[in-house]
Amino acid sequence: MATDLAGGTAADFDIETYLEEQQHKDLLRFITCGSVDDGKSTLIGRLLFDTKLLFEDQLAALDNVSRRYGTQGDAVDLALLVDGLQAEREQGITIDVAYRFFATPKRKFIVADTPGHEQYTRNMATGASTADLAVILVDARKGILTQTRRHSFIVHLLGIRQLILAVNKMDLVGFDEDRFTAIVAEYGRFADQLGARGVRAVPISALNGDNLFHASRQMDWYAGPTLLDLLETAETARDLATRPFRMPVQWVNRPTPDYRGYSGTIAAGTLKPGDQVVAQPAGRTSQVVRIDTADGPLDRGQPEQSVTVVLADDIDIARGDVLAAAEAEPAMMVADQFAAHLLWMHEDPLLPHRDYLLKIGPRTVTASVLRLTHTVNINTLDEQPTSALGLNEIARCQIATDRPIAFDPYQEVRDTGAFVLIDRFTDETVGAGMIDFALRRATNIHWQALDVDRAARSRQKGQRPCILWFTGLSGSGKSTVANAIEKLLMADGRHSYLLDGDNVRHGLNRDLGFTDQDRVENIRRVAEVARLMVDAGLITIVSFISPFRGEREMARHLVAEGEFIEIFVDTPLDVCEARDPKGLYAKARAGQLANFTGIDSAYEPPEAPEIHLDGAAAPPEVLAERVISYLRAQSIL
Known about the structure:
Distance between the termini: 80 Å
CATH superfamily of the largest domain: P-loop containing nucleotide triphosphate hydrolases
CATH topology of the largest domain: Rossmann fold
Number of domains: 4
Shape: globular
Strand order of the largest sheet: 7-13-10-11-12-9-8
Number of helices: 16
CATH architecture of the largest domain: 3-Layer(aba) Sandwich
Structural class: alpha/beta
Helix content: 25-40%
């Protein structure tokens, strides 16, 4: 049985009247954030408890788990209302984002309790992405911490302009006014650097309810509004209806041969029959005939409504395209390079020039970070040059996609300006970004039509061009086998060229070292050269350690199917070390050579190579004959 806001029982409760009242209240979405143990879950638990919308079985369950996991002795631990995972209760920290609903007579609220631990910053960013307001909690004993600054920076970056600084646990500092004043002053200096204006501060004790719903008798020196007063008077509208119309297409709706609609959720602006829209990135225009929903047609579509748009013309629109107002400023941007802020969310660092999947709305494309402009020092907000990006770091960067995409600057429309980066092999989300602006592209660069094409060059040479990509540890024998293959091809009258890792580093890649970032760029350049050689009709032999699967797959996708043949020269590390033809393993073991593959730098062996050679089981000439036999079987020779 639940209690209502007036304290009555469910027997006295008129559910229809209540729902009617709720329907006409506005809704505020906000998050609580800050460092670990600042009291975020306790604050939300107190809000849920004091609004009296908890059921008796919830309270009984809370009493039970409080005895088992609680931190308040015999008292009920309100934080456990939100910390639902067993790991959260055992460790006393928030791990996942917990969304909770509550209401007061004036307003409805959806609050996201976000984790304070640095390890789960990615979850905090997720919770902030849909919020209108952020409550930044600070433990009065600890003051402003690095994580306080990090969370403040992220919410500001995500476009949240309403901030409430809630100085919590005032009861543990004796409700000291001077302590509150000092924390507010320190945070105010940081907020000024950040560009955050109008931050409201309130001293609270979430555990006891001081200054949450009612003014605290313990802090009569504070005459400002309570936390609930601030939440009930905060702005809720993000003025999406006043923005130009935007709707990413989720689905092309074809229930019958005579009906074609484009389904999605309106991200910004309004739409009505007769409006002119443009489908981006293709730039095709048409007129809206009708706007359908599950409940029937609409006279006008509003932001956050799910609709199906029927157009007058049967134009080519696919999932991931964006319907936008045809005659509106600012016009939607279409580009394949843009500047963005990127929050990195993975333990493995970002590698510039490595291919990732970029998901923006329903569209997924291949993308790479061309350049990291600078990272941000969370404590000072200073911009620092960087060539790498680690877990929870934030950087300004330049990103390129493999095809043009349609977007808006994030600060104008969140839904069409936000993206995530996904690892192509693990499908893990590794980064979240906010687009700032398109980078200028030269409009006079295009593919030149050539009369002599790849097919003509192949016929002339009597062979099918391809890439023979040798990979393996140093000393595995891959260069020796590759050299033997080229001699056999030459003797057979074939046209080939061998790109060897050491040789290429004398010229094309002489500026690169052996960090992970440089290894990625090393392979990217060689893969592009190999692609051009395939276009010239050559059998191109590439012999590189190429330790990362991601870059080998990138090279594979540069040429047509069947034109990339991965050859894994699989030689045990101890055999490679025993050979050590260049003395490199000995130097690496002695600590004289850093970032050496197989010793202190990882090698990712192929999972399904076209050819698997045991580098310790047969002479190079025998292994080379196996490769030639494969080429004949595939009709390449």
